[in-house]
Amino acid sequence: MVMQFVDNFLTTLYKTVIAENRWRFYLEGIGNTLMMTVGASLIGIVLGILIAMIKTHHNNSGKMRFLNWLCNVYTTVIRGTPVLVQLLIIYYMIFSSASSSAAPYIAALAFGLNSGAYVSETIRGGIQSVDKGQTEAGRSLGLNQSQTMRLIVLPQAVKNILPALFNEMIMLLKETSVAGWIQVVDITRAGDIVRSRMWSFSPLLVSAVIYLVLVVALTSVQRMIERRLAASDRS
Amino acid sequence: MKRISLFIALVCTCSMALTGCGSSSSASSSQPTSSGTAADAQSGSAADMPDTPPVEVSSFESAGKLIMATEAGFKPYEYYEGTDIVGVDVDIAREIAKEMNMELVVEHMEFSAIIPAVDSGKADFGAAGMSITEERAQQVDFTVEYATSKQVILTKADSGIQIADDLSGKTVGVQLGTVADLALSEPEDFPGVKLELYNKYFEAVNDLLSGRIDAIVLDSLPAQELSKVNESLAIRDEEIFTDVYAFCVKKGNTELLDSINTVMQRLMDEGKIAEFTTNHLEE
Question: How many CB atoms lie within 10 A of CB B113?
Fold first, then answer.
C-alpha cells in the first residue's frame, strides 16, 4: 500500500520533471523569475527613494510642488490598478514594437514601476520615523539639509526600512507569477507548459514547491539580516 | 466588542451574497435542444424513452446536462458570436445532446485544460478541433474522426517565409498544447526555431501583426478565417503535417463514447458536417 503510493509518487515526479528534459522549463522559469524579482526590486527601491525624497522635501519646505503632484498622480494610478493590467498595458501599448525576447525585461520594468509606488510609502514612513531631534541636532551642528539626510537620518531610517523592503521583494517573487500573460516563461508558466504536455496537475505542485523553497530561503536571509541589525541596538 | 461582531456579521453576509451571485464560466448554447429529462447522464442513449414527455429539470440538477469543454477561439470550429459560443463542434454537440435528450452546456477554457477537465469529470466530453495523438489517447478515449486538417504557416504576406525550412532562425507562435506546439518543439525536425507559446490565438495574431513573431503554425481552416479578417496575413501552401479531429471522453466512458460515435457517423453519412463547416466559413 505504502510502496504503491511511493511508486506512484516517484513515477509522477519522474514524468513531471525528468521525462523529456522537462526540468529545462523549470530551470528557465526559475531564471526568469529571479531575474524579474531582483530587477523589479532594484527599480522599485530607486524609484521609491526618489519619490520619498521629493515628498519629504515638499513636506518640509513646500518646494517642488509640481514634482510632488506628479508623484501623487503616479502613486494613485499605480495603486489603483492591478499589476497585471499595468503589465499588459506596458507590454502591448507602450512597448508594442519590442521583440518577444525582451518580454522578461519589460516585465521586470513593469513590476518595478509597480513596486516603486508602494516602496516609496515605506521609505517615507521610515524616514519620518527617525526622531526629528536627529535632524535638528544635525542642522545645529552646521550640516545642511542634504548632509543631515545623508549622514544622520538615512542610515537610521535604513534599519526601519530594510525588513519592509525584504518583505516587498518576497511579495515581488510571487507577484511575478502573472508574467505568463505576456508569454514569459516564469515558474508558473513552466508548470503550465509541462501541464500541457502531461495533461495532469502535478506540474502545478512542482511550481508551488519551487516558489515555497525560494520564499523560505529569502525569509531566512531576512531574519539573519534583522538579527544583525538588532545587534547594533544592544551594543 | 459589539462593533467587531457587527463587522464580522457584515463580512459573512457579503461573502455569502457574493458566492450566491457567482455564475460559472459556462455559456449555454443559444438554443438548448430540450429541457433535460430526469434520465441520469449515464443512461442517455438514442433509443431510450421516445414517448416520455420532457420533465422540467431545475437548473441546479446535474443530471440532464451534457457539458462540453472547448476553447472558443478557433473559428470555424468554436468561436464567440456575441456572448454565445458557436461553431462546427457546437453544431455537432447540439445534435448529440438532442439524440440523448439532454441539455448542452458549452464551457470555455484554455485548450490545455480541456483534457484534464474531461478526465476529472468537470466536463462530459471535449470538442475543440482536437487532433488525435498517441499521448492524448493515453489520457482520454477518442471518438471516430470527423475532420481532417493540415497544419499550415500563417505569416505576413511580405515576409520571406515560404516553406517550413524558412522557419529556421525565426520566431514562431503556436497555441500551448496543440499538435503544432508539440511538433515544433522537436529540435531535430525544426532546427533553429524560436517558439512562442500562446494561450489564445488572438494574442499570437496581434504579435504577428506587430512584428514580434514571424509566423504562426496552426490548422488550415482557422488560418483561413484569420487571414480573411487580417488582409496583411497570408497562408503558405506547404502542409507541415496532417492530422484528424475527434471528440474525447473520459477513459472508460463507453456509453457516452458509443452515443457520440453513433451520432457522428450519422452526421458524416448525411454530409451534415461538411454543411456545418461551410456555414461557419461563410459568415
Answer: 22
Q: CB of B221 within 8 A of CB of B149? A: yes
Task: Indicate the class that CATH gives domain A25-234.
Answer: mainly alpha
- Examine residue B260 and state whether it is found in any structural domain, yes or no: yes
Mutate to test the interface with B, among A32, A89, A93, A100 (most CBs of B within 10 A): A100
On the question of pLDDT at A233 being above 70, the answer is: no
Q: Tell me whether A66 touches chain B (CB under 8 Å).
A: no
The reported pTM is: 0.78
Kindly report the number of other CB atoms within 10 A of residue A142's CB atom.
Answer: 8
- ipTM comes to 0.78
With b for 16 or more beta-carbon neighbours within 10 A and e for fewer, the B23-58 pattern comes to eeebbbbeebbeebbebebeebbeeeeeeeeeeebe
Could you report the per-residue pLDDT of A67-93, keeping only the tens digit for each? 999 999 999 999 999 999 999 999 999
Domain ranges of chain A: 25-234
User: Cβ of A101 under 8 Å from any chain B Cβ?
Assistant: yes
Is B54 near chain A, with CB under 8 Å?
no
Closest partner residue to A100 (CB to CB) among B111, B116, B171 is B171
Query: In a 3-state reduction of DSSP, which class is residue B69?
Result: strand
Claim to verify: residue B71 and residue B189 sit in the same structural domain = no
Q: Are residues B116 and B176 in the same domain?
A: no
- Considering only CB atoms, A201 lies closest to which of B116, B135, B181, namely B116
- Determine the angle formed by the axes of helices A103-129 and A65-80, rounding to 10 degrees: 120
Mean pLDDT, contiguous 10-residue spans, chain B (283 residues): 71 60 39 38 41 44 77 91 92 91 92 90 93 90 92 89 86 92 86 90 91 92 89 86 92 91 92 89 69
Residue ranges making up the domain that contains B168: 150-243
User: What is the per-residue burial (b if ≥16 Cβ within 10 Å, else e) of B239-255?
Assistant: ebeebebbbbbbeebee
**CATH number for the domain harbouring residue B205:** 3.40.190.10
Interface of A with B in 171-230 (CB under 8 A): 183, 185, 189, 192-193, 195-197, 199-201
B157 and B223 in a single domain? The answer is yes
The rounded distance, in Å, linking the Cα atoms of A127 and B98 is: 70
Q: Cell digits for B9?
A: 456579521
Q: How many domains does chain B have?
A: 2
